[in-house]
Design brief:
With about 250 residues, this protein is mainly alpha-helical. The protein contains 13 helices and four strands. It starts with 8 loop residues before the first helix and ends in a 7-residue tail after the last strand.
Length: about 250
């Protein structure tokens, strides 16, 4: 949540009330996004520290429990910025320019000078926020779904460039074929399920299928089990915020 000023009922009913429930269902990380605030408010930093403090106080008052969830300030964890920098080296500009909120917010904030990389690249900073924790679930509203998809694409591109060893694809494909016709088909289905939804049960079943097979060598078994050809970080899954009517 960006510290742009005092929180209001929209923040509570749109996000906070759901966060309070989610913290008891998942391992949750909630942070005050002060770097994100700079993407549009870089000229308005005089009250930033006060706004950060007010946001944290309001979170506690709303019911977020630091004994259950992790609450922190984004800029206090420099790895967010480091990963953002690394991802910016490999992300095509066209991906960022196609994010729907880019032009929408430019239209809404005409009075501000938003011809900056910070504004263009803020969805990539959000990708870093997600991927640095290998998040499995991301509580976002509908307007942020495109940002989570960008995180998926960025993770895939990163792993395509750096996540495999020479000839790994050929070795993995040969290992899959050596599983036998039926097992190979089952393996491919499980792999697709993991790629599309991050289903850890599908991953475990596929690994068990490989490890139980005596027709392939240990080297090939490793190739088929680890899946470094495909995205290895936990690809984020969208967990939509449930809209509620204000009583």
């Amino acid at each position: 949540m960006r510290p742009t000023g005092r929180l209001h009922l929209g923040n509570y009913y749109g996000a906070l009330r759901n966060w309070v429930e989610l913290q008891y269902q998942y391992e949750c990380f909630f942070f005050v996004a002060d770097w994100h605030m700079l993407t549009t408010g870089y000229e308005e930093t005089a009250d930033l520290q006060e706004h950060i403090r007010d946001v944290l106080i309001d979170w506690l008052a709303a019911g977020l429990n630091p004994g259950v969830a992790t609450l922190f300030i984004q800029s206090h964890v420099p790895e967010h910025a480091e990963l953002h920098l690394l991802l910016s080296m490999i992300t095509p500009l066209g991906w960022l320019e196609r994010v729907p909120s880019y032009k929408d917010q430019q239209e809404q904030l005409k009075e501000r000078d938003l011809a900056t990389y910070g504004f263009l690249g803020y969805p990539l900073l959000q990708s870093a926020d997600i991927l640095v924790y290998r998040a499995a679930w991301v509580p976002v509203g509908e307007d942020q779904v495109a940002h989570v998809e960008l995180a998926r694409e960025t993770a895939r591109r990163f792993n395509h460039l750096y996540g495999r060893e020479p000839d790994f694809e050929a070795k993995a494909e040969l290992a899959i074929k050596n599983l036998g016709g039926r097992n190979a088909a089952t393996y491919r289905q499980l792999r697709r399920k993991f790629q599309e939804s991050g289903d850890t049960e599908a991953l475990q079943r596929a690994q068990a299928l490989v490890q139980a097979n005596t027709r392939i060598s240990k080297l090939f078994a490793r190739c088929a089990t680890v899946w470094p050809v495909w995205p290895r970080p936990m690809i984020p899954i969208v967990l939509p915020l449930r809209p509620r009517m204000v009583p």
